Amino acid sequence: MHKILVVEDDFMNREMISQRLTWEGYEVIVAEDGAHGVARAITEHPDLVLMDMGLPIMDGWQATRRLKSASATRTIPVIALTAFALSDDRQRCFRVGCDEYETKPVDFPRLLSKMQQLLQPVILKEDYSSS
Length: 131
Prior knowledge:
By secondary structure, this protein is α/β, with parallel strands linked by helices. The protein has a single domain (about 5-130), classed as Rossmann fold, CATH 3.40.50.2300. The protein is built from five helices and five strands, in the order E-H-E-H-E-H-E-H-E-H. It has a five-stranded parallel sheet with strand order 2-1-3-4-5, with helices on both faces. Strand 3, helix 3 (about 60-70) and strand 4 (about 80) form a beta-alpha-beta unit. Helix 2 packs parallel to helix 3 (about 60-70). The longest helix is centred in the first third of the chain and has 13 residues, at about 10-25.
C-alpha cells in the first residue's frame, strides 16, 4: 500500500481528497500547511506528496523547494494541486521541483492516473554484456 501525504489547508478539500484516496486503497497522512508538510515528509517518508501551492505559514512553492533540496526527501514525487491555472503558474510549480501538476477542482481519474505513473517502480534491465 502506498503512503500519500496530502498537504492542504482547506479542511473540506483535505477531507475529500483523503477519503477518496483511502477508498482507492492508499494510506493517507495529512498536513494543513507547508511547514507541517515538510516535517511530515521527513518523519513519515511518504511515497508521494499532493501539495497545495497556496498554503499558510510556508506556501507550497517553498515547501516543495525544501523537500527537493533535502537528501532525505528529494526523490519523493510531488504533485502540485492548485487553483493557479495559468501557464506561468504551471511552469513555476515545475521550476521548484514538482513532478506533476493538477488544477482544482481535482479531476480524480486524471489525478489517480498521474499518481500511478509516478508511483511505478523503475525497472532496470540487467546488463548481461559483462558476463
